[in-house]
Design brief:
about 140 residues; alpha+beta; PH-domain like; 4-stranded antiparallel β-sheet; 3-stranded antiparallel β-sheet; 3 helices; about 40% helix
Length: about 140
């Protein structure tokens, strides 16, 4: 089993952490208006969904390759792709939402028309681990 971390673009990480920080500030502001049940619920939801959840996605993102599977883990989201189902891997800089923290991505085509974008730090090692010789 080999674990690959995601390459991280500094600007993308800065956007996520700044957005999370703003959500925490907004939660504090709502609570400063009064400790009513409504304010507590609004502050908690804002802090969890806007603050904690995106950070959880960033810190948990990893790509695990074993003998038969590529497992992509990103917070509560998990993809299990059989290595034998991978048809191709090509470079991409697509902006589509994906379990990738960089725009320096690989587009994995697998199964029948399924795709996922990943951004492993070690692209060559990742491609070798999933059993493909080249991109």
């Amino acid at each position: 089993m080999t674990i690959f971390k995601s390459k991280q673009d500094a600007w993308l990480i800065a956007v996520v952490y700044t957005s999370s920080f703003i959500c925490f500030i907004a939660s504090g502001y709502v609570l400063a208006q009064g400790l009513s049940i409504t304010n507590i619920i609004i502050a908690a939801v804002t802090a969890l969904v806007g603050g904690v959840f995106p950070i959880w996605l960033i810190v948990s993102l990893k790509y695990v390759v074993d003998e038969k599977l590529l497992k992509i883990i990103c917070g509560p989201f998990k993809w299990h792709i059989e290595l034998s189902a991978i048809n191709s891997v090509v470079p991409s800089s697509d902006l589509v939402s994906s379990p990738a923290l960089s725009l320096d991505r690989l587009l994995i085509n697998y199964g029948f028309g399924k795709t996922v974008l990943v951004s492993p730090k070690d692209k060559k090692g990742f491609i070798g681990a999933i059993g493909l010789n080249k991109v």
